[in-house]
Amino acid sequence: MTPNDGRLTGKVALITGAARGLGAQMARRFRDEGATPIITDLSEADCRTLADELGGDAYALDVTDSAAVTEVFAKVAANHGRLDILVNNAGISGMEDRPEEVQRGYDITMTQMADSMAGNPPSVFNDVTLRTTDDEWHRVLAVHLDGTFFCTREAMRIMGPQQAGTIINLGSIMGTSGGAGAAAYCAAKAGILGLTRSHALEFVAQGIRVNAIAPGWIETAMTDALGPMKPLISMQTPMGRMGDADDIAWAAVYLASDEAKFVTGQVLSPNGGWTMSQ
Ligand SMILES: NC(=O)c1ccc[n+]([C@@H]2O[C@H](COP(=O)([O-])OP(=O)(O)OC[C@H]3O[C@@H](n4cnc5c(N)ncnc54)[C@H](O)[C@@H]3O)[C@@H](O)[C@H]2O)c1
What we know:
The chain is α/β, with parallel strands linked by helices. It has a single domain, classed as NAD(P)-binding Rossmann-like Domain (Rossmann fold), CATH 3.40.50.720. 49% of the residues lie in helices and 12% in strands. A 7-stranded parallel β-sheet has the order 3-2-1-4-5-6-7, sandwiched between helices. Bound molecules: nicotinamide-adenine-dinucleotide (NAD).
C-alpha cells in the first residue's frame, strides 16, 4: 500500500512516547496508511532517528511539562495548520528503576502458588506499597494522567476549531483488573479510562472521537523489565503468548480511521483473551 491510498491519507498524527515500543509501531503503521507522523518522546535524538526513517517531524516532549506541551502543539499548528490524530501513548510502569521489587513480586507469587497448591494459607505477602515513596507514586500518575490531560487540552485547541479529529488514549488491562504490586500504574490506567469517557462526551458535539486501547501484555522494553515474570504471563494468557507491537498498532489504525466513525468513548483491548470485559 502506498501513502496515497491508505486509511489515513493526508492526516497529521502526533504520538507521545513514540521513539520506541508501541508508539513507534503506531507511527510506522500510520505512515504506511498515508499519515504524517509527528514523533515525540523524552529524547529528541531518538525521535529524530525514527522521524528520519518515516519522514515526519520530531520533538522532544516530556508530557508532564505543561508549558512544553503547549509549545510543541503550537509548533504543530504553525507547521501543519491542523492535527487529525493524537495518541496519548507515553507511559512508565513505575518499576523501571526497581528490579528488586520485580524479583520480589515474582518470588511472592511463586510462593503463594505453591502454598495454595499444597492446601496451605499464604505464607508471604505483597507489600510493595509500603516501600513506595510519594515521588514514585506521583511520577506514575503524572506521566499517565497529567500527560494525557495536558496533551488532550492542547490538541483540542487545534481539533476544536477544525470540528474534526480523533484521540486515542493508552489504557491497560491493569486499569480494570488491577494488579498486586502495581497500585499507581493501575490507578493511573483506570483514570485514563475515566478521562477517555469524559472527553468523548465533552467533545462529541464538535465531531471529535475519543477512545482507549487497553493492551494486554505486549513485548516491549516496558515488559522486558518484568524478566522472570514473562513465562508465567505467557502461560496465563489464553492465547499462550504475549502480544507484539503490531497487535496494538492495528487497533490504533482502526480507531484513528473513518472506519471507526461511529465509535467513541470505547475501550478496545487486544489482550490474547486475558480478560474479556473492559
Ligand atoms: N507493553 C505492554 O505490555 C503494555 C500494556 C498495557 C499498556 N501499555 C501502555 O502502552 C504505552 C506504551 O508502552 P510501551 O510498552 O511501548 O513502553 P516503552 O517503555 O517501550 O515506551 C514508552 C515510551 O514512553 C516514553 N516516556 C516515558 N515517560 C515519558 C514522559 N514523561 N514524556 C514523554 N514520553 C515519555 C519513554 O521514553 C518510551 O519511549 C504506555 O502507556 C504503557 O503503559 C503497555
